[in-house]
Amino acid sequence: MPHNESSSLIILQALLKADSDFVSGNDLAEKLGVSRVSIWGRMEQLRSQGFEFEAVTRKGYRITKKPESLNPLLAQAYLTNPEECPDLVFLTTIDSTNDHATRLLANDYEAPFFVISNQQTLGRGRMGRKWHSPPSSNLYLSFGSRPYVRPDRMQLFTLWMGVYVARHLRDWLDLDIGLKWPNDLFYNGKKLGGMLTEARVDADSLRELIFGIGLNVNQTKEDWPKELTDSATSLRELTGGELDLNKTAALLIEAIYKGYQAFLEGNIRTNFESMWPEFDILKGQTIEAETRDGTIEGVASGLDNRGSLIVKTTKGTVTTLNSGDVHLKRK
Ligand code: BTN
Questions:
Q1: What 3 state SS string does 231-258 have?
Q2: Which of 49, 147, 167, 228 gets the most CB atoms within 10 Å of its CB?
Q3: Residue 8: helix, strand or coil by DSSP?
């Protein structure tokens, strides 16, 4: 990070930590080993990005307004340990953050890294669906890596990451966020976000891994396209207030990176079996699943330790699905 940017980041972190209290310009100058004039210069530069500060003689500065749309410095300032976080690539607009991550990996960009965009013009969901990606209200983020993971473990990856994301959001907002197998974040029967993992496997070993997530943050009911009004929701709708997009981005980045590190290190199968049930919104529900061999109907009965969905079918048999599309049957 260029020197000027890293001093702006340190200033922002100090101001965010102080919350509504003042931070003295002298303290900031001392901390950074620069003059007060130079602090003033950095504050002016932050103002040009949409921050507003109150400056009071002998007291110092405090933040009075933060940018509402995605701001790289602010998102980083919210991270608990910005220095331990992989590289963050912020974009104003892109076709798809997953596609951009694929290109970066193909061009030997140092991994792991995150790609975050303010909007996507060709956002993709599972099964060739489109992912609604308007500017400035939601998060579109991909994590690119070149891990060493046995391909047979990959079926668990999205599910595992989903647990980390759902748990972080639940703890932060005190909302009972759940997961709908295999890749949806759900609340009260509505979709809050979706995940799309893409991997390149060569000669039996995993070369490149991209984990993409779209999270509906500040989208309002009126702004959904008609076909999504009844099936989608956003954190704003659930909490009843606008969320800080940059803080939410930081939380998501931390959840993903923690989840990824734990996936590489841990005893994932055993841990997964104990983690999943807490978030499983399908368990005990009558479902209909579209599989390659046709539609099956039955009661969802949890996952096995490979991440496959166990279904007790209406025909009295038990079957496991390792991919597919599931709908809850209305009673
Ligand atoms: C789904 O529910 O079908 C998965 C949706 C995944 C959407 C995210 S948004 C960021 C990343 N880039 C994409 O094009 N798709 C994923």
A1: CECCHHHHHCCCCCHHHHHHHHHHHHHH
A2: 167
A3: helix
Provide the pLDDT for residue 3: 64
Atom 7 (ligand 1): residue with closest C-alpha? 214
Cβ(123) – ligand 1 distance below 6 Å: yes
**Sequence-distant (≥ 6) Cβ neighbours of residue 258 within 8 angstroms:** 164
Each residue's pLDDT tens digit, 214-253: 999 999 988 899 999 999 999 999 999 999 999 999 999 9
Tokens in use for 282?
A: 């399908």
pTM of this structure: 0.94
Give the atom of ligand 1 at the shortest distance from the alpha carbon of 117.
10
Does ligand 1 come within 6 angstroms of the Cβ of 98? yes
pLDDT above 70 covers a percentage of the chain that reads 98
Reported as half-sphere exposure (CB side, CA atoms, 13 A), residue 86 has a value of 22
Looking at residue 175, what is its pLDDT? 96
Which residues contact residue 331 at a Cβ distance below 8 angstroms, ignoring those fewer than 6 apart?
Answer: 286
Helices and strands in the chain, H and E counts: 9, 14
Ligand 1 atom nearest 141 alpha carbon = 10
Q: Is 120 in the pocket of ligand 1 (CB under 6 A)?
A: yes
